[in-house]
Design a protein that fits this description.
Radius of gyration: 21 Å
Strand order of the largest sheet: 3-2-1-4-8-6-9
Distance between the termini: 43 Å
Number of helices: 18
Largest sheet: 7 strands, mixed
Number of strands: 12
Strand content: 5-15%
Order of helices and strands: HHEHEHEHEEHEEHHEHHHEEHHHHHHEEH
Length: 386
């Protein structure tokens, strides 16, 4: 009787989650093209807007040169590019020095020591923003490659939607099927966040580090990175600060227009997210254990259900594939084959393991190590924006 109840509960939960995702997908779309924006009445003919792009770089020699060149190739915008070299020990400084000689729009700021009470990336973004002179500020990561018209389109969307903040999720530099299925799972987990900000729901907020474009006046009014100095999820919490200041956010799928490097296989997500997942739960052990237990039981019910050869067990197993329905729609919007969505139920354990790994490693070490600097857990708990 207990197993029957468990199987039926699991089936109902999978179906409910899939239905909720389908509803939220109505507000989860790609950034409009220039053609669509022109048809919609956006003033594409206006003078280029001055935008300051801030990149916080630490030991990014592998992808930084291409990142900078692609940023400098942005069309239809008056660009100021500020790269903050955050204590790099590899060839980052030499690469930036050469690029600055080639293009005067690139300014390089060097940080040699991290002040007390700051996370390295937050401090670097703060220093870059202090030097920014643009009407808008774009924060993007050193390993993100942007298509040439993305910034212009985002600015036009902001004008059309009367938004002070536009954020885009990242696509994939290594587009293997496992990575793509994992990306679909990740985006589905954010569907209600996208939906909330795009519907202007009270308290809804979102910010994504690959592409956080904010009006400079709004950034300064909300407190900016000075308020985020000890916040691990600085990109998300920048969206929170803007929402609290009464600013409007619009969020879009970056797909192949904002390409980030996440490793060479899906399991590389585990160490990459080591600093993030426990932080996303505000470093709450009871909450983390509850989420891990719930997801483990849900996946376990599907696996045991398949082996049980009972009607309710098979219902639990097959219902997990209901997640493939919204995932298939999302895959098509990303420009991928719908068949990638069939892998979504199989990648769930990777994300559960990533949360378990993040929780255990953070507690075991008593904090996180980020950009070769250790930050104590008690400091992070006390200083993080909530």
């Amino acid at each position: 009787m207990l197993m029957t109840f468990t199987f039926l509960s699991a089936a109902a939960l999978f179906v409910a989650v899939a239905c909720a995702a389908l509803w939220h997908l109505r507000w989860m779309r790609r950034l409009p093209t220039l053609e669509d924006l022109n048809e919609g009445g956006a003033s594409a003919a206006r003078e280029p807007i001055r935008c300051s792009v801030i990149v916080a770089a630490r030991n990014e020699e592998a992808r930084l040169e291409e990142t900078v060149r692609r940023l400098l190739a942005q069309r239809g915008v008056e660009l100021e590019l500020i790269v903050v070299d955050d204590r790099s020990t590899d060839r980052t400084a030499a690469i930036l020095e050469q690029l600055a000689k080639e293009d005067a729009r690139l300014r390089v700021l060097r940080i040699d020591a991290l002040p007390e009470g700051w996370l390295g990336k937050c401090h670097a973004c703060h220093i870059g923003a202090l030097a920014a002179q643009g009407e808008w500020i774009l924060f993007t990561d050193a390993d993100c490659w942007l298509k040439p018209d993305v910034v212009r389109r985002a600015l036009l969307v902001a004008e059309r939607e009367q938004a002070e903040h536009v954020t885009l999720s990242s696509g994939l530099a290594v587009p293997g099927p496992g990575f793509r299925a994992g990306s679909l799972m990740f985006h589905l987990s954010l569907a209600n966040w996208f939906s909330g900000v795009n519907r202007d729901r009270p308290k809804a907020h979102l910010g994504l580090g690959a592409f956080n474009l904010v009006r400079a006046s709004a950034y300064r009014q909300c407190g900016g990175y000075e308020a985020l100095r000890l916040t691990v999820l600085d990109d998300v919490k920048l969206g929170l600060l803007l929402r609290r200041a009464g600013k409007r956010t619009r969020a879009f799928l970056g797909a192949n227009e904002v390409e980030a490097y996440w490793g060479t296989c899906l399991w590389d997500v585990v160490p990459i997210m080591e600093k993030n997942y426990f932080a996303a739960l505000e470093f709450s052990l009871p909450l983390a254990l509850g989420v891990i237990a719930f997801l483990t039981l849900l996946m376990g019910a599907a696996i045991l259900g398949a082996a049980s050869r009972t009607a309710t067990g098979l219902a639990a197993a097959l219902s997990s594939f209901f997640l493939a329905i919204p995932a298939a729609i999302l895959a098509r919007r990303m420009g991928w084959s719908w068949s990638i969505a069939l892998g979504v139920p199989f990648v769930m354990p990777v994300f559960v393991w990533a949360l378990l790994n993040s929780t255990f490693k953070t507690l075991w070490r008593g904090g996180i190590r980020w950009r070769d600097t250790f930050y104590a857990l008690e400091t992070l708990r006390a200083g993080s924006v909530r």
